[in-house]
Automatic annotation (TrEMBL):
<feature type="domain" description="PSD13 N-terminal">
    <location>
        <begin position="1"/>
        <end position="56"/>
    </location>
</feature>
<dbReference type="InterPro" id="IPR054179">
    <property type="entry name" value="PSD13_N"/>
</dbReference>
<dbReference type="GO" id="GO:0006511">
    <property type="term" value="P:ubiquitin-dependent protein catabolic process"/>
</dbReference>
<dbReference type="GO" id="GO:0005198">
    <property type="term" value="F:structural molecule activity"/>
</dbReference>
<dbReference type="InterPro" id="IPR035298">
    <property type="entry name" value="PSMD13"/>
</dbReference>
<keyword id="KW-0647">Proteasome</keyword>
<dbReference type="GO" id="GO:0008541">
    <property type="term" value="C:proteasome regulatory particle, lid subcomplex"/>
</dbReference>
<dbReference type="Pfam" id="PF22037">
    <property type="entry name" value="PSD13_N"/>
</dbReference>
<dbReference type="GO" id="GO:0005634">
    <property type="term" value="C:nucleus"/>
</dbReference>
<dbReference type="GO" id="GO:0005829">
    <property type="term" value="C:cytosol"/>
</dbReference>
<protein>
    <recommendedName>
        <fullName>PSD13 N-terminal domain-containing protein</fullName>
    </recommendedName>
</protein>
């Protein structure tokens, strides 16, 4: 189950409509952070890279 969710999240954060704004930051703070310890570390980094780009 965690793998399927991780794959969906990886595809979701790459969507161009989230390239601007703070949607991914809110997604991370309110959703992903609750179970990040269960996600493969490499996959988590791939997801967080997109989140960090919105912080700068």
């Amino acid at each position: 189950l965690w793998h399927q969710l991780t794959v969906r999240l990886q595809n979701f954060v790459q969507n161009p409509c989230f390239a601007t704004g703070d949607g991914l930051i809110k997604l991370y703070e309110n959703f992903i952070s609750e179970f990040e310890h269960r996600i493969n570390p490499l996959s988590l980094v791939e997801i967080v890279l997109h989140v960090v780009r919105q912080m700068s």
